[in-house]
């Protein structure tokens, strides 16, 4: 009975999401003025969100170097966004393969895949406009992503979607309102935030429906896969090549960024909503907690609330 009503709810949600998509979707190739020049002397993300902000190296950098670093960091995050969207598209296609193709639930999955195709095109254009390389997440994460997109399923699909979508969404909500940064970044963030709000709703409801149906072993395995995904995504948002691009030693600068309390605060601020949601659904527990702590998305002494520990 609970499953039947869950499926009905699922159709109601999908119907609403389809209606919202029909009303409010974008074509970034037409809706963004790609020919407009970038503004001179203007950051690409708020300077306090740069990974080196507040460090000794930051103090020594010129204004030009700082702005260039912000350009490369936004490009790196966008390239990791594309990497993740490509994984998600495949996970969603594989999810749909086993479902009723006439259901609104599957039709929304197809709509979301179409959104992600346009987003990845938009991010690719933005990286090109920034004259930055396609940094990507690095070789190791690239191969882990290949495994995830090939065998990930069920709750893992939707929880992994939320990790990337919620972190990026929180970051982009700040960007779209920040009138001091490049208008192109604000415009891209605005389109992504509006369309991703629907994806977040779709994935959250699926996690809420699926979590209570997992047996002990499935729950333990899912928590670990989710923790590993969070660790990989968070640790690879910024490619060390961004530091080399502005004349810094990539190894030293990355170590400094990873020890930077300002950067820790940024990661935790961007992950707060996601972590609260996983806590509510008992997904923050078990051996994966060590990965969460190392990811920087929670404090190094993080402990989930008692409810999550009880299971
Ligand atoms: Fe997207
Ligand atoms: Fe999405």
From TrEMBL:
It holds the Pfam family AurF. Gene3D superfamilies: Ribonucleotide Reductase, subunit A. SUPFAM superfamilies: Ferritin-like. This is Diiron oxygenase.
């Amino acid at each position: 009975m609970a499953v039947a009503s869950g499926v009905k709810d699922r159709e109601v949600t999908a119907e609403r999401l389809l209606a919202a998509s029909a009303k409010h979707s974008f074509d970034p190739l037409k809706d963004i003025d790609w020919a407009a020049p970038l503004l001179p002397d203007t950051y690409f993300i708020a300077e306090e969100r740069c990974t080196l902000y507040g460090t000794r190296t930051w103090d020594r950098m010129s204004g030009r170097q700082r702005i260039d670093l912000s350009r490369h960091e936004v490009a790196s995050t966008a390239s990791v966004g594309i990497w993740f969207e490509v994984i998600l598209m495949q996970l969603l296609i594989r999810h749909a393969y086993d479902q009723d193709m006439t259901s609104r639930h599957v039709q929304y999955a197809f709509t979301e895949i179409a959104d992600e195709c346009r987003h990845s095109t938009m991010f690719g254009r933005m990286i090109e406009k920034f004259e930055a390389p396609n940094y990507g997440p690095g070789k190791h994460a690239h191969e882990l992503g290949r495994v995830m997109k090939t065998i990930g399923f069920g709750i893992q699909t939707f929880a992994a979607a939320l990790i990337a979508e919620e972190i990026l969404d929180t970051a982009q909500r700040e960007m779209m309102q920040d009138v001091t940064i490049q208008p192109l970044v604000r415009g891209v963030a605005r389109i992504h935030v509006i369309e991703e709000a629907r994806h977040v709703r779709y994935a959250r409801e699926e996690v809420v429906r699926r979590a209570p149906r997992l047996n002990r072993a499935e729950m333990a395995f899912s928590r670990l896969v989710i923790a590993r995904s969070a660790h990989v995504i968070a640790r690879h948002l910024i490619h060390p090549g961004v530091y080399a691009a502005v004349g810094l030693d990539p190894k030293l600068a990355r170590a400094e960024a990873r020890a930077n309390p300002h950067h820790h605060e940024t990661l935790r601020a961007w992950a707060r909503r996601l972590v609260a949601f996983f806590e509510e659904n008992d997904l923050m527990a078990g051996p994966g907690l060590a990965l969460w702590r190392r990811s920087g998305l929670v404090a190094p002494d993080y402990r989930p609330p008692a409810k999550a520990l009880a299971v």
